[in-house]
Structure prediction request, 137 residues.
Amino acid sequence: MTDIHLRTAYSMSRMLGGADAPVNLKTAAYQNNIQYGAIVYGKGALFYEALRREVGDAAFFGALRDYYARYAGKLAAPRALLQLVQAKAPAKSQAVAALYRRWIEEAHGDDDITGGKPATITDLLGGMMGGGIMEDE
Prediction:
């Protein structure tokens, strides 16, 4: 269900004319609050799902534990979690860097989130009702 909400936020922004954008922009760089929410809280959160699929549960959750232990109550650098994931899954280091670049630094949300097809209201409603492109995998 979380997946539906995150994909819906992104798709609704796109349907309202919001552009896809990198996740790591300054807040003022986004067109409005709708685009900001769609990109940062929708697309950005979906990155973690893609990261977990790439490295597996052991490396993903191990890196999260390390991240919490190291940075609890502190300010972490933007790439801190990325580096910890790479340390937990060294064979996937280049793939993790490419995934980060694609999801966080570039704008491929339409391909990554809606399969390259702009979502329509029917798709979104269908997804909420158990069909359409927003259906959980």
